[in-house]
Amino acid sequence: MSDYKWYVVQSKPGQTDKAAQELCNQGFEVFLPLVRTVKLQRGKRIELTEPLFAGYLFIELSELSSNWRPIRSTRGVARIISFGNQPAVVPDGVIEQLRDNLRHQAELQAMEPNQTVRITEGPFANLNAVFTEFDGEKRAFLMLELLGQWQRLSLPLSALKKAD
To answer: What is the DSSP letter of 2?
Structure first.
């Protein structure tokens, strides 16, 4: 079993990307979960890619073989999150779940109009529908054929997956 574990690094304000890049340049395994968001700026909708946890990133380190010293003096890094004198360990399962969720979200955000999707939750679970457009950041409008007629409905993105 590997003695490598995931830890949380807090970055200096506005320097999360810089901290991640500098730690990668030093050879550390870094995970900075990013999400696409839509925001209004000067009355226009723009798409941005932002850290999921503003000001934080994850780093994989070994208690035995990793050199922890350069981390504190890395540009953009404020500190490693600790409880008492012990750095806080993030379970591997949490990191894997974050990666899976972000992959799924990226798949869904790449959907095109008229694409077939499968509903995975709720009363319409296991039925196929046709994606028409996004309904905000976390929902989508779909067309579903019920009783010989097309019905328009809005469902959360978490209840959809691309049809095979």
So the answer is: -
Name beta bridge partners: 59: 7, 30
Hey, what are 69's tokens?
């010293």
Residue 61 CA, distance from chain mean position: 21
Q: To the nearest 5 percent, what fractions of the chain are helix, strand and coil?
A: 20, 45, 35
Residue with token string 């019905």 = 151
Q: How far is CA 45 from CA 40, 48, 78, 137, in A?
A: 5, 10, 32, 12
Please, are residues 78 and 10 in contact by the beta-carbon 8 Å criterion? yes
CB 18 within 8 A of CB 38: no
In the predicted structure, residue 130 carries a pLDDT above the cut 80: yes
Task: Identify the structural domains of the chain with CATH numbers, from first to last.
Answer: 4-109 (3.30.70.940), 111-162 (2.30.30.30)
- Reported as a single tens digit per residue, the pLDDT across 97-122 is 999 888 877 777 778 889 899 999 98
At 43-71, the pLDDT tens digits run 887 878 889 999 999 999 998 888 899 99
CA 98 to chain centre: 6
